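Troubleshooting: if your tokenizer reports a length mismatch, compare your output against this known-good record of 317 residues.
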Amino acid sequence: MSFRRHLALLVTLSLGVLFASTAARADVFDPKQVPADAKWMIHIDVDALRNSPAWEILNAKIKQSPANDQIGQIELLSGMRFPEDLHDATAYGLTFTPTDAVVLVHAKVERLQIEQLLAQAPGYDSEKYNDHDLDTWTDDKGEQLYGAFVNDTLIAIGHDKDSIKKALDVLDGKGNPAKTGDAVAPAVKPGVAIVVACTDLANLKGKAQSPVFTFLQSGWITLTPGEKAIAVDAQSIAKTPQDAEKSKQALVGIKAFVDLAAAKDNPDHKAKIASKALNDLNVTVQDKTIIGQMNVPYDVLRELLEVKPEPQPAPQK
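Known-good structure output:
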């Protein structure tokens, strides 16, 4: 497998932990890494996950996925030990177009080794930007990729050159970064492992579109691993207080529908799991703000992720 595919897989692994310590421990999400005009953002603190009971389940899911076969090769080519050297990953977009997305990977890697291998990739070229080497190469689908080391442990990768340049401007203190409390930069407490935030929800297109989002301007969700469950906290801002109440009723209605589907004779297995996951859901409204909270027990998380039981060793005779 080519190096550029391994690099892409490294990004995939960083984000795949959603569905991990060394001296360079990841910090709580830093909004200064994201432009103020970003439309959406996903941040995964792999360190926080790895040091929680959730990691056993997530690690088992990774081992059962096709990506697991390539981890050893990634470690060999990048010098990164998985998972302890992968600290966190952030993805964001200035638009909802997938090719505009930027991925920031914070990991302990062998920088010189990666740079030497990348220079051999098809379509490779490099230019200076803000004292960084902004590299470009062609992936296996014939699409152009751009990437740069921000420093020895932070890599910016994307398909759009201008988006990478803007990312470097923000990271170098020359751009306009988000501030805590912005739509794509919610305030998060220590221990939060996953943050997802989005603005302009009413204009989402394609598979992300939902009638529930019609009334909403922005929203965020965080996942915090606890001792026995994942705490899920969410908050959305509606256009009006009336829209906030409509959104609450829609969410309550969805939960009721799932519960009814799970209560039928011979219910669908996925409906039963969804009902278990939503069992603790509580939704409240404060003016234009919809607040949702629930706890998903780890045994339910295991079912949601379809993690198969680990094979048990045969008893010794």
